[in-house]
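Example record used in the benchmark description.
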Amino acid sequence: MKTCLFLAVLFLTVSCSQEKSARISSKSPGSSNEIIIKGVKRSIADPWITSFIAKGGDTASAPQTEIFASDLSPEYVKFNWKGENTVFVEFTQTDDTKRTFNITMSSQGMMMNEVNPGGEDDDWDVGVKLK
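Model output (structure tokens):
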């Protein structure tokens, strides 16, 4: 009995702690810019640690953020391009809440802010240099 209980606990510990990674991307309508989202999830209970990567001549990364989604796939991540340089990235989290990020790329860098419904936007300049 003790052996069965030990094996069950061991199995749950191993299955819950397997690291998972994912990558999803989208190109602007004219394909001059691309946004790539890479994520790592340490265990089933942890959030995705996501990195936003802008490609448009040079490659550079934006800050990381935590996303509580089941997966980083087209079912949970939507891209909405507004021209060649601006994209809204919307994540559907496990509790069905949405998190939306507005990303604008230019020759001076990349601006990214989270769009908070009913609240103030959380702006930051990530200092990404694009050609």
